[in-house]
Amino acid sequence: MEDDLSTLPAYIKDSRLLFETWLSRLVAIPTVSSDPAHDPDITKGVASAVRLLETFGLSTTVVETGGNPIVVGTLLQDPAYSTILVYNHMDVQPASGEWGTDPFILTRRGNDYIGRGATDDKGPALTVLFAIKYARSRRIPLNFKVVWEFEEEIGSPHFDEFVKTHRKELAAESVVVSDTVWLSDDKPVLSIGLRGLLTFELYLQTGVTDVHSGMAGGPTRNPIAELAQIICECYDAKSGHVHISGFYDGVRPVSSDELQTLRTSGFSVQKFMQDLQLFSLRSQEPIEVQQSIMLRPTFEVHSIAGGYTGTGIKTVIPSSATAKLSVRLVPDQRPTETFQKIKRFIQNRNPDITVRRQNSCEPYLAKLDGPYLKAAEIATHYAFAAQPALVREGGSIGSVMSMSAHLQVPILLLGISLPKHGYHAPNEHFDWQQAAGGIKLFAKYFSEIAKIS
Amino acid sequence: MEDDLSTLPAYIKDSRLLFETWLSRLVAIPTVSSDPAHDPDITKGVASAVRLLETFGLSTTVVETGGNPIVVGTLLQDPAYSTILVYNHMDVQPASGEWGTDPFILTRRGNDYIGRGATDDKGPALTVLFAIKYARSRRIPLNFKVVWEFEEEIGSPHFDEFVKTHRKELAAESVVVSDTVWLSDDKPVLSIGLRGLLTFELYLQTGVTDVHSGMAGGPTRNPIAELAQIICECYDAKSGHVHISGFYDGVRPVSSDELQTLRTSGFSVQKFMQDLQLFSLRSQEPIEVQQSIMLRPTFEVHSIAGGYTGTGIKTVIPSSATAKLSVRLVPDQRPTETFQKIKRFIQNRNPDITVRRQNSCEPYLAKLDGPYLKAAEIATHYAFAAQPALVREGGSIGSVMSMSAHLQVPILLLGISLPKHGYHAPNEHFDWQQAAGGIKLFAKYFSEIAKIS
Q: How is A203-227 classified by DSSP, letter by letter?
């Protein structure tokens, strides 16, 4: 059977206005999953997702969980066809930092679409959906199950239970996830691994109220300083090296194949710094930079709060301080064991510090099936005239680990976001080139895997 | 000449309602000097101070400076009388932290007056003023000059220039400052020294915008972690010991007299912790605790800001971070030299960090004249039936150093605040016992020094 995708270019061209309309609607709902104040927006986001999927011809189910609901869309064309499960998430990061535009009003600038969630992950979700619509119109022999999560940005705390419970309804021959980032603007990636994530808080209280540093400074403990000190004992901020005993246990040795892929990936340190607008890095060696993103764990402090942060200096010693931290984990590190090591290390040194575990997800390494990998390569060539690099991703997608465990089918991580799009950063954006290329990519991919018997 | 203070107890009793009325008015104006948003309140505070002084029979002048104005009140009874200059400040700390009441509405609870500035320094200022009013009514042979500053809490940046320029108008035989704290509830203090203060900021920017810790974590520098690290290199949070080379240069050896005074001061570590509501201290030795407050310098971090501090954890690496720090200095350390040492130490280790000097004031050690000291002791006995401890104060009052340098007369630091009053802390309060005792103290002190020829 020969593909007939001849109508695809015109379909993409004609779709732009509708794409922009829906992306605007989706971005306008601040589905920030980490802040309970946005719970009503999650409810609005779910309703909007249902409308969108039904408009595109899918039947929908809203599955309640212990947290935010999950929206499932189904397009059953023929029970004889094989089925693909498409995963995206519809929740977003908070829009802190300095934005040039309102983060929740999609702003079009040339081909760019600026707004929180534009590239992570509302834009890619919409892109796949436009490809599904095309596949339907062309009767590509495939059934579709679309899963849109609303808790990805907080580590998918209820997704595992969801997949486990609904294993049968979610059954498919393969899964595709579009929530990853290319190596550079012209280097697509087929991600074969993800880092895991463990987030946790440190809390130290040394008194009931803030005290005057003149009256009490000297004998009085300073909780900000003590948290800073324990963090410095945990790791070296300059190199990123972690001092916690046993932290690196389980880290898989890097294979020479992986190193070779990185060496030939076309990765440029200069370009990476430009895309992310960074002034300097811990290392300038391309192979070092790539490895430390993809193949090595990290230790990161995201905030140390406590004391006065208004204008000027208030010379009090705060009564308490909180630090927010995370570690990214690589195969075969485990979040639970890692948390125990961190907690033990900290409390041995400063027993007054409370160490609270927050979210976590396991690291992931794909066992890729031949035909799906082949289909992805063909589709990437077709859409972007490039060979995808098979590399591990630095980020974490908790849901992938759950789907891998419970569905036991190949999971393809076909991302269409670019480094410059600014995942989680202010001025996050998506663009029409990647959307158009993405529709082409997924349409071709669907057409290819429909042939797998 | 024998004193006739027989009407004083009745005067104090009759003054309570008026005292409370004026304290309410003063506290109701949030004269927060560290925040430019409160500039209009400073203006209101100045107008209110003028009204208050004139109501009490003083003529007033508002002296403009490069910053907030200074209010000067004069009560010239007879050119033949000697003159005392009374210093207080009318600005306050920001009211951050958790208050049980509105910090800018004076709340009376039994004998306590709760509100920002109640004890630092509006209550003591008012207390001295009631004693001046009494002195006037009893024709105690003394002229009064009252100086109310509105920039004490930000290190008195324009006060030195003010005193220098107005040296002649401010001429007096002695100065009294009421802005210090007793050793304990029943141990009055005649402060013979003050720590100096130097506040500064560290700033580190490593990129333009926050970046995703999955996409970029590993090679990307973390400015919060780097600031935490340099702070840990500067000093040991657990002991408070400072590692900066030369930091302790100039610290005067403690005399055996001073140690003896501390040993017999009745200071209780337990009571200190209770008053300040602290759970534990760096040391439990009374002599260690007292020395580290009064006789030794400190290094303190007040905040490390940067990154997301909202609900939940946002796993981004911030593009910049700011830390606010201070050191308290003791004789004969100097702020300028100390700042240079700190800056050099930090920039040698991390040249990307900007070190910005903020405010400073010199440490102070009194050379007390016999008769004034004697008068203060007599007045303290009269008012509180106790012998004042001659100790150095842990806090810093920049204006004292300026008056000492330019006026060249004895400066008596006669504080009436108690440790439990909570200088700079939430739920700051003053109380009627200390106000009543304070009026008695100052009335007697005025009567005593009027006798000095």
A: EEE-BSS-EEHHHHTTTB--HHHHH
- pLDDT tens sequence across A253-287: 998 988 988 888 778 999 899 888 999 999 999 99
- Domains of chain A in start order, with CATH, are 8-194+363-449 (3.40.630.10), 197-251+296-361 (3.30.70.360)
Q: DSSP code of B312? A: S
Quick check: B298 and A393 CB within 8 A? no
Q: Count the alpha carbons within 13 Å of B327 in the hemisphere toward its beta carbon.
A: 31
Closest residue in B to A100 (Cα–Cα):
B209
In angstroms, rounded to a whole number, what is the distance separating the alpha carbons of residues B363 and B224? 32
Q: In which residue are the tokens 């141990």 written?
A: B187
pLDDT of residue B1 exceeding 50, the answer is no
- Asked which of A146-155, A281-290, A349-358, A395-404 is least confident by mean pLDDT, the reply is A395-404
Partners of residue B313 in chain A, C-beta under 8 Å: 34, 199, 201, 302, 324, 326, 358-359
A427 touches B209 (CB < 8 A): yes
Of the candidates A358, A354, A368, A243, the residue with the CA atom closest to the CA atom of residue A297: A243
CB A235 within 8 A of CB A345: no
Ramachandran area for residue A130 (φ above 0: left; ψ -120 to 50: alpha; else beta) = alpha
* Predicted confidence (pLDDT) per residue in B193-226, tens digit: 899 999 999 999 999 988 889 889 999 999 999 9
B112 to chain A, closest Cα gap in Å: 18
Question: Does the beta carbon of B293 lie under 8 angstroms from any beta carbon of chain A?
Answer: yes
Q: Which chain B residue is nearest to residue A205, measuring alpha carbons?
A: B279
Quick one: pLDDT at residue A395?
A: 87
Instruction: Give the C-alpha separation, B244 to B231, whole Å.
Output: 10
Amino acid making up residue B252: R
The SS3 call for residue B244 is: coil
CA–CA min distance B79, chain A (Å) = 39
Q: Determine contact: A100 vs chain B, CB below 8 A.
A: no
Under an 8 A CB cutoff, do B292 and A219 touch?
A: yes
Chain B closest-CA separation from residue A453 CA (Å):
36
Measured between CB atoms, which of A207, A218, A220 is closest to B296?
A218
Whether the pLDDT of residue B286 is over 70: the answer is yes
| Touching A: B residues 388-407, CB under 8 Å | 393-396
pLDDT 10s digits, A103-135: 999 999 999 999 999 999 999 999 999 999 999
Closest CA to B133 of B22, B25, B263, B221: B22
* Nearest residue, CB atoms, A315 vs list B232, B302, B306: B302
Residues of A in Cβ contact (< 8 Å) with B227: 228
| Cα B174 to Cα B191: distance, rounded to the nearest angstrom | 15
How far, in Å, CA of A94 to CA of B217, rounded?
A: 19
Nearest by Cα to B314 from A167, A426, A222, A119: A426
Contact (Cβ atoms closer than 8 angstroms) between residue A301 and residue B228: yes
What does the alpha-carbon distance between residue A396 and residue A247 come to, in Å, rounded to a whole number? 18
Distance (Å) of CA B117 to CA A353, B51, B427: 33, 18, 10
Find the CB nearest B281 among A214, A219, A277: A219
**Contact status of A417 with chain B (Cβ, < 8 Å):** no
Quote the tokens at residue A61.
């189910």
Q: Does B314 touch chain A (CB under 8 A)?
A: yes
